[in-house]
């Protein structure tokens, strides 16, 4: 049986370490003192009933909202108080539960938005943009380079184009013919693929996905599973929230089960599947995830 409170064996070499993380909304403890890790090449999934705190956990890890307590470290560095841009630069890329793409931008431009924060040659002095009084310096430099260009910025431009093409190629049959189409003209599944491609273009140390198959049919879900397995084979660390248990059980090295803002179980998929606390959380309340039987 898994032990929800035991520290994970791989904490020492963990990529992401979350300790006693807390977030409340006017008295509601959405995330109530949870601790977990994600190893450098590990796929960890968070499952749990609606409202159990999964998305809030991802929002905290990616800096979308601040925590009320606890610590978050990435590669040993404290990111608990960093903003989303810094966390993205540090190597955490995410997608959103409801899907977020820029409707009027093309597929390629949507992917490029994901890389912008990592540009070096095209964005000199970019660290100054965090200083209110000096923000004009990087803005002017960026404008100058955009108009005139430098050998380094032109080289970077070629690298960006290669990254965009590589990510589109990952979804070739789907996104290839739609590279220059505006996102609003895409199918729902292709918008979600574009969002995943944007996150991957950042070449993140940790890919954070919130219900990437929500709203997808069975064959589209199977396609996402294949792509996740490919990423896993490439060594990509993933923190995944997903309701479709078949997918979770197929792709995850470890599964964390949340209920009421707490972790009630964590362990290997087959351990979690048989954990009485997990069965109680779903079946005891007659609410299996996606109607699936956990036992
Ligand atoms: N911005 C917010 N303001 C107030 N309450 C919030 C906010 N965000 C989340 N909550 C509440 O926190 C709890 C956890 O929400 P969260 O979105 O993390 O759940 P979830 O596990 O992702 O659920 P689902 O499976 O439905 O996506 C819920 O009770 C939710 O209503
Ligand atoms: Mg959610």
TrEMBL record:
Annotated ranges, domain ABC transporter: 16-285
InterPro entries tied to this protein: AAA+_ATPase, ABC_AA/LPS_Transport, ABC_transporter-like_ATP-bd, BCA_ABC_TP_C, P-loop_NTPase
Statement: the UniProt record of this protein carries the keyword Transport: yes
Record Gene3D superfamilies: P-loop containing nucleotide triphosphate hydrolases
GO molecular function: ATP binding
Keywords, sorted A to Z: ATP-binding, Nucleotide-binding, Transport
PANTHER family: AMINO ACID ABC TRANSPORTER ATP-BINDING PROTEIN, CONSERVED COMPONENT OF ABC TRANSPORTER FOR NATURAL AMINO ACIDS-RELATED
Name the UniProt record assigns to this protein: ABC transporter ATP-binding protein
Organism: Gryllotalpicola koreensis
């Amino acid at each position: 049986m898994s032990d929800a409170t035991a520290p994970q064996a791989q904490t020492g070499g963990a990529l992401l370490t979350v300790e006693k993380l807390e977030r409340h909304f006017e008295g509601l403890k959405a995330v109530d003192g949870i601790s977990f890790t994600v190893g450098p090449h590990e796929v960890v999934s968070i499952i749990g009933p609606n409202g159990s705190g999964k998305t809030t956990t991802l929002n905290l890890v990616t800096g979308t909202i601040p925590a009320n307590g606890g610590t978050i470290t990435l590669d040993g560095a404290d990111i608990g108080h960093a903003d989303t841009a810094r966390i993205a630069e540090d190597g955490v890329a995410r997608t959103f539960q409801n899907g977020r793409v820029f409707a009027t931008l093309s597929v390629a431009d949507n992917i490029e938005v994901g890389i912008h924060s990592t540009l070096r040659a095209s964005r000199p002095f970019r660290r100054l943009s965090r200083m209110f009084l000096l923000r004009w310096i990087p803005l002017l430099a960026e404008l100058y380079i955009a108009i005139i260009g430098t050998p380094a910025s032109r080289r970077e431009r070629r690298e960006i184009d290669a990254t965009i093409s590589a990510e589109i190629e990952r979804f070739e049959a789907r996104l290839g013919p739609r590279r220059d189409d505006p996102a609003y003209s895409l199918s729902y599944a292709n918008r979600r693929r574009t969002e995943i491609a944007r996150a991957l273009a950042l070449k993140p140390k940790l890919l954070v996905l919130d219900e990437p198959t929500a709203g997808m049919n069975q064959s589209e879900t199977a396609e996402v599973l294949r792509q996740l397995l490919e990423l896993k084979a490439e060594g990509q660390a993933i923190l995944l929230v997903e309701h479709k248990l078949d997918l979770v059980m197929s792709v995850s090295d470890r599964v964390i089960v949340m209920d009421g803002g707490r972790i009630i179980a964590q362990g290997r998929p087959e351990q979690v599947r048989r954990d009485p606390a997990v069965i109680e959380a779903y079946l005891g309340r007659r609410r299996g995830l996606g109607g699936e039987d956990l036992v």
